[in-house]
């Protein structure tokens, strides 16, 4: 079915070729048609759910999408052992404001915890400085509590060297 004077492959044309390589999903081939040498991939339809050519040459022949299109693998969490006697970290003023307001709003928005959480941050931003200062003062007192408890914890667990270093930090 070759047309005279045409050097372009046509549908239904018979071509001669060589199999250059084989892989799980098909063959790498080189075909000669007139003066043109064509290189390509022939996929085995029996092993593929759909008998369609791959859209990009970068896609692995096994049908697996390229790494850029696959979901990222989850990294394993590293669990660290925390001493139960170690003092809890201090809280900021916002950390005192949040649970107080959350408890107040929860009866009104029962079952809508996410909405409550999203409402609280703008409310904190709209507080007057005098109102914020009440919570900020609680935060400062909690920092002082944390420093005192850490000094006691370090002196009891590590000796005097760490405690004196922590005391120097407090003095600054």
From TrEMBL:
Q: Which residues bind DNA?
A: 87-154
Region Disordered, as annotated, extends over: 54-76
Q: Which UniProt keywords apply?
A: DNA-binding, Nucleus
* Cross-referenced PROSITE patterns: HMG_BOX_2
State a single Gene Ontology molecular function: DNA binding
One Pfam family this chain carries?
HMG_box_2
Q: Which cellular component, as a GO term, is one annotated location? A: nucleus
Protein name per the record: HMG box domain-containing protein
Source species? Brassica carinata (Ethiopian mustard)
